[in-house]
Design brief:
This protein is mainly α. The chain has one domain. 77% of the residues lie in helices and 0% in strands. The chain has 4 helices and no strands. The longest helix is centred in the middle third of the chain and has 32 residues. It is elongated. 28% of the residues are buried. The model has no long low-confidence stretch (mean pLDDT 89).
């Protein structure tokens, strides 16, 4: 997988996180703002990592890897908290406009994609001719 594709994927996932969380929590963000802004941080870090690695691949790739690692950490926490809610506290409402099971599946899929993107970002070497 090329680093160019991984950068584009970072922009896509970053935008998806920002837009998705805005739609999901727009009417509830004042209840606890950190819940709202965690996805904004993921988006900002992924945007910066993509920009930095496009500007100077050798110096920017660690930033891209760090952004993916941050997204993986946040995704892990989000996925397993939603999984716990789905199985042990299904009566607790979620602000998402889709069923909670679908939201949990979407978060889990996104988390696995972030893990894969981190893996492929770390797999690239500076002397790899297919890195670009």
């Amino acid at each position: 997988m090329s680093l160019k594709f991984i950068r584009r994927f970072a922009v896509f996932i970053g935008a998806f996180c920002v837009v998705g969380e805005t739609v999901r929590r727009w009417h509830t963000w004042r209840e606890w703002p950190p819940y709202f802004f965690d996805d904004y941080l993921i988006g900002a870090f992924l945007f910066y990592g993509a920009w930095a690695s496009a500007r100077d691949e050798r110096r920017g790739r660690p930033w891209l890897a760090a952004a993916w690692a941050f997204a993986c950490g946040q995704g892990y926490a989000s996925f397993f908290s939603h999984l716990q809610q789905a199985f042990f506290d299904p009566a607790r409402p979620d602000p998402a406009p889709i069923p909670h099971v679908w939201l949990t599946a979407l978060i889990g899929t996104g988390w696995l994609l972030c893990v894969a993107a981190l893996f492929f970002t770390l797999l690239k070497r500076d002397d790899d001719p297919g890195a670009r």
